Amino acid sequence: MFIHLLGGFLGSGKTTAIQQAIQLLRQRGQNVGVITNDQGTQLVDTHFLNGEHIPVTEVVGSCFCCNYPAFENHILQMEEQEKPKVLFAESVGSCTDLVATIMRPLQRFHPAKKVVLSVFADAEAFPILVQGSSLFKDSVNYIYKQQLEEADILVLSKSDRLSAYQREKVEEVLATHYPDKLVLFQNSYNGTHIEHWLHTAAGVPQTWRRALQLDYERYGIGEAELGWLNQRLRIQSKMQQAAQVTVQLINALYRSVQDAGLPIGHLKFLYHDGNQQQKISFTAGSVKPAEPISLPNSQLKEVELLINARVQTGPEHLQQLVSEVVARAEQKANCSVEVLNQEAFIPGFPKPSYRMA
């Protein structure tokens, strides 16, 4: 089995790359599987992949590194049930130290399994964050930089959005900070780029990787700067405008976070109308929506919306912002928005199951 372990900051494009790679591999008749990861439950990416009929399982309640036994069990269960030739494992976006806590244990306990770590970074946000962005606090930037340091392959996603000038600036940062790193500029909706990523990963030698010299106190402080909220809503409109209300709610929540001056790790939404689904994302690199949100089946009385928000603020503040946006949407559109379930929290201090440093 070949395991693509994916790391990288929140909203860096890991799930998109996985989905597109799986489409390519399935066309070749290969069995595939995915393990996702979240500090909470109700992960947009897991539900999205399920909706695409992709075999997916999830390690919940902690990052991979803090629950290696569960991660290992999911690999073995997936191997037994789906018999994948290729397995994608997507770590939570605030996680680092994957070489010492995941790759080395896998290499020791399962030497027949080939593992390659691809760390994704949003190409537009990359030079800003590497050079000491004031967007996030220093401890959050620290996590971002440590993720990049341990990559087998550094994938600069969404690179098609770069102008020639921006590309030049990115290459200057790479030459200064990561001169020896294997780097791919990638548009994950481009099949040739996905093919190149998979081919490059297949050629990475299975050596005993160098582990990070990580300051866990600083790492833990950085994670605690981010408030996490997962919330599932049922939106009902007697006027058959549930989809339009959903668009208004998504845009209003994004504007509310922006107006409050809160840095976004990621703000993800999964719309589902009972038949079709659509994923909408805003990230640290988002200045404004790339294009107007258009949802399928606009004439509906009821839809569901799953929200994953990872924002540099307290969870109570984040929950308050969402509640205010929902209340305004109900009043303005004369609709009903029911909270089916929710959780808001700060991730616990990282305590790895194993650390082979």
Please characterize this protein's 3D structure.
The model has no long low-confidence stretch (mean pLDDT 94). The chain has a seven-stranded parallel sheet with strand order 3-2-4-1-5-6-7, with helices on both faces. The protein contains eleven helices and twelve strands. The chain is of the alpha/beta class and 357 residues long. 39% of the residues lie in helices and 25% in strands. It folds into two domains: 2-223, 3-Layer(aba) Sandwich (Rossmann fold); 226-345, Alpha-Beta Plaits, CATH 3.30.70.
Number of helices: 11
In the CATH scheme, the class of the largest domain would be Alpha Beta
Strand order of the largest sheet: 3-2-4-1-5-6-7
SSE series: EHEHEHEHEHHEHEHHEHEEEHE
Remind me, CATH topology of the largest domain?
Rossmann fold
Question: What would the average pLDDT be, to the nearest integer?
Answer: 94
Instruction: Characterize the largest beta sheet: strand count, sense, and whether it forms a barrel.
Output: 7 strands, parallel
How many E strands? 12
What is the end-to-end distance? 25 Å
Q: Shape, please? A: globular
CATH architectural arrangement of the largest domain = 3-Layer(aba) Sandwich
Query: Low-confidence runs (pLDDT<50, min 5 residues)?
Result: none
What is the CATH superfamily classification of the largest domain?
Answer: P-loop containing nucleotide triphosphate hydrolases
